[in-house]
Amino acid sequence: MLIDAERIPQEHKMESAAAQIYAIQAGLELGKKRGKNLMFAKSAMAVLTAAMMVAGLLFFNPSQLLPQQASTSIESSDWGVLEPFKKLADADVDALTLESAIRNDYVQIVNKSAEKDGYKITLNAVIADENKIMLLYTGTSSGGQEIYNVNSVWLTDAAGQSVVDKNGNRSGMGLHAEDSIYKWLGKTIYPLDKNKAFPKEVVANFQIASVDPGMLAKPNTGTNLADMRYSDRLKVSFAIDSKFWEQKTETIVLNQPFMIDGNKVNLAQVELSPLSIVVKYTLSEDLKTNWEIRNELFGKTPSELTSRVGKRELKNNSIGGSGSEDGFISNFSSNVLDHPKSIRLKLNAGPDREKDAYIDILKK
Question: What does pTM read for this prediction?
C-alpha cells in the first residue's frame, strides 16, 4: 500500500484542478504581492477550497470531465498522421490553437516510442513557441489492462532540469481513442520562461495508469488506490525543431480604458504568438488594493476575441487567467499563424454600455 501511495500522481491532480479553476491563481498572486484583506481572503479561500475538492480526488479521469467545447468547429481538412487527435481537439477549449498549427504545418512529427511490460507510450508530435511547449502523445496497453489515463507527464532538458517554470503550472487533458479502452490520446502543455535559454534536447517522461479487465466500466473505479496499476516511467528523448524559436511574440501596446461595473479598467497590452494570445489589464492605484472589487472585476473581464481570416470571422473564448501586481491577465487560444487581418476584444452590453462594443487589437 505504501509503495502504491508513493506513486499517486500529485502533478496530475493539480493539472486537472488548474484546468477547471484558474481563478485561484489570482488570489494567490495578489495575496503574495499585496498583503491581506479580510474580504478578499474569504473569497480566495472559497475558491481554494473548491480547487482542493477537485484536486483532492484520489484519481481523476479527464474523459469524465471534459472542458467546454472549443469556440470554433474543427476543420475537415486532413490532419495526416495526427488525424486521431481530432477527437481530442473536439473536446478541447484550446482547439483553435491546435487546428491552426496543424493547418499551417507548424508541427514537429516525432513518432518515437518507449515500452515496457505491456505498456507503450508514443510521442506523436511537438508544437512550441517561446512561451510554451505542447506534447501530443498516445498511450497503449496489452494483456487486458484497461487504460485509465496517462497520469503523469514530466518534461526535462538533457541535464535533467525541469522545463516547466518554477510555478509548475503545466496543464493537460486526454481521452480514450475511438472505440478503444486500450488506447489513450493526450495533450500536455508546458509554459516556458522567456528569460531562460530555450530547451533543445529534452526528455518526455510518462507514466500510464490502468485497471484490470472489466474494472473501467464500474462506477467506483478511480476511488480505490488498490485497484490501480501503473507502468514504469517511459522516457522518450528528442530534439526540438529550431523553427519554433524563430517565431517571436509580437507585443502590441494599447493603453485603452473601458468600464466594468462603473470601474475603469485599462487594456494595457496584448501579446500575440503562435500558441497563445495574452491580454493584460491594469487598474488604477485605488483599485489595486481594493480586494473585493478586484475579485469582482476579475470575474467580469472580457472573455471573447474575434479575428477575421479572409472572409471568415472566428470567435475565440478565454481559456484561463490570473492576477498580476497591476491587474489581470487573460489567456486565449491563438490563430496568429493564419495571419488574421483583424483581432478585436468584445465588450458586452450591460450597465456600462447599451450595446456590444469592441476594442481593435490588430487591424491590417
Answer: 0.80
Q: What angle do CA 359, 361, 364 make, to 5 degrees?
A: 115
Q: What's the rounded Cα separation, in Å, for the pair 21 and 41? A: 17
Asked whether residue 209 falls in the same domain as residue 300, the answer is no
Q: How far apart are CA 14 and CA 22, in angstroms?
A: 11
| C-alpha radius of gyration, the chain, whole number | 21
Helices (H), the chain: 2-6, 10-20, 24-34, 38-55, 85-90, 95-103, 285-288, 291-298
Cell of 32: 503574495
Give residue 340's domain range: 246-363
Residue 33 lies in a domain: no
User: Per residue in 265-323, pLDDT tens?
Assistant: 999 999 999 999 999 999 999 999 898 999 999 999 999 999 999 989 989 989 999 99
Beta bridge partners of 271: 251, 278
Domain boundary among 228, 244, 260: 244
pLDDT above 90: percentage of residues in the chain: 62
3-class state of residue 317 by DSSP? strand
Domain with 140 in it: what CATH number?
2.60.40.1640
Q: Do 125 and 236 fall within a single domain?
A: yes
- Identify the domain boundary among 244, 259, 289: 244
